[in-house]
Specification:
Growth Hormone, Chain: A; globular; about 450 residues; 19 helices; disordered C terminus
């Protein structure tokens, strides 16, 4: 929820801090961008830490850090403190997201059960993303923007108690050494990549700092798999990407997150900037998305358990294409009922996608790497979100120049959405083919060896 809850509350935050002494527009952007940037940088490290030291323990620490940081955000006297609080929030989030997925894989080892559980998890995850604008809009307008952070400690407290009561502790049966070099390469590479994507549109792609960060990130990310291939106990064995189902799942995670994040952010801006809706009305417009996610995510899990990943992924690709085509005709006077149809189709698209990609990724990995495997999917999604931030910034700048209205400026992104939908449909077919299954089977000796603790 914290990825999207501030989108609608930004005007209220801007007004309060402007009255308190001012701040730059770039600082306002960092209040949003620092969260996905740090989260993406630390997710794989968080998943691997859970595998090593205990998934329940790391999950509970993450909850505590996240709750504390949320209180800091709610009390922030200035924009700098808010940015710092969001930074710490992301550290806690990186300890929760992949670890939660690996806990599910441990508690539900059977494919059908795990798929249904992941469908429920996907419903809650997607629902929270969609409810972010709804909750943020209502709270910021009627209570104040600081209230958007008050709900986090309450949820975290409930989760801490439930985790202590019902979640068994689990960790990797093989004790791996601490790979300091690998961790540094990964954090530097991911942080630099997301920094370039987030700041590039504002600083300019030819800015020396952007170019330097991009080169450093590229070198670190190129060095990481080479370094991992030389270790007996890597975070993620690069050979697992030879499995077409696993590689396709990671690609789909990035693509759908980029389209999903762009849709949420651009439609929030469209409703408020182009149509003049209030924060609360903007939030309520997202309810069809939330309903679609709530209904279709569990359905997707059941479909995966019974029929495999292909049917829900095909539905995802088709729904993304339909929603994107409808968005091509968006104007400042598009009837509300058409908007609601678009939002409902988007909810179906992104409700169907989580269970098949996560089930495929976790199903093809040894159990002692479950946290790291889940983190790969989560990291790709955060990179996708960062890509959409960059794309949305370009749209906002184009609209601000006054040559085109916001809906017209956004149309290139909806063409991109059509392409993504087609690619997702193609990957749904190719990744579940006989050839793809054979590519996964060729890794079976490696997987079984890892499960037995053999390098």
């Amino acid at each position: 929820m914290d990825l999207t809850i501030l989108n609608v509350a930004l005007p209220a935050i801007h007004d309060e801090f402007r009255l308190r002494g001012g701040h730059s527009e770039q600082q306002m952007q960092w209040a949003i961008n620092i969260y996905p940037l740090v989260l993406a940088s630390l997710l794989i490290l968080g998943g691997a830490t859970g595998d090593r030291y205990g998934r329940r323990r790391v999950f509970q620490i993450g909850l505590t850090v996240f709750a504390t940081a949320s209180l800091l955000c709610s009390l922030a006297p200035n924009i700098e403190t808010l940015i710092a609080g969001r930074f710490v929030q992301a550290v806690g989030g990186a300890m929760m997201n992949p670890v939660a997925l690996s806990i599910i894989s441990q508690v539900f080892p059977a494919r059908a059960e795990r798929a249904r559980a992941l469908g429920i998890w996907g419903a809650m995850s997607g629902l929270s993303l969609a409810l972010g604008p709804v909750v943020g809009g209502l709270l910021s307008q009627f209570v104040g923007w600081r209230s958007v952070f008050w709900i986090n400690p309450l949820i975290c407290l409930a989760a801490l108690l439930l985790t202590a009561l019902y979640v068994p502790e689990s960790k990797s049966p093989t004790v791996r050494g601490v790979d300091v070099i690998g961790q540094l390469l990964l954090v530097i590479g991911l942080f630099g990549l997301v920094f370039v994507l987030v700041e590039g549109p504002w600083l300019g792609w030819s800015n020396p700092g952007i170019i330097t960060a991009g080169v450093i990130a590229a070198l670190a990310l190129l060095a990481f798999p080479r370094h991992q291939s030389r270790r007996d106990d890597p975070f993620i064995d690069p050979r697992f990407f030879r499995s077409e189902p696993f590689a396709s799942a990671t690609a789909i995670a990035l693509l759908e997150a980029a389209v999903w994040g762009a849709f949420l952010l651009l439609m929030s801006l469209y409703l408020q900037s182009e149509r003049g809706y209030s924060a609360s009305r903007t939030g309520l417009m997202f309810l069809p998305v939330a309903v679609g996610l709530l209904l279709f995510s569990p359905l997707s899990g059941r479909m995966v358990g019974r029929f495999g990943a292909r049917p829900p992924l095909l539905v995802t690709g088709l729904a993304i294409v339909i929603a994107s085509v409808l968005l091509l005709f968006l104007t400042a006077t598009t009837p509300v009922w058409v908007l609601l149809v678009i939002f409902a189709v988007a909810g179906i698209a992104f409700g169907m996608v989580s269970a098949p990609i996560i089930s495929t990724a976790l199903g093809g990995m040894p159990q002692d790497r479950a946290g790291a495997a889940a983190a790969v999917i989560s990291t790709n999604r955060q990179i996708g979100v960062s890509i959409d931030i960059a794309l949305c910034a370009e749209v906002s700048q184009t609209a601000a120049l006054g040559d085109r209205d916001f809906a017209e400026a956004a149309r290139p992104l909806w063409w991109l959405g059509i392409a993504v939908g087609v690619v997702v449909g193609g990957l749904a077919i190719s990744s579940t083919s006989v050839r793809a299954e054979r590519s996964a089977q060729r890794l079976a000796p490696l997987i079984e060896g890892k499960r037995a603790g053999i390098p």
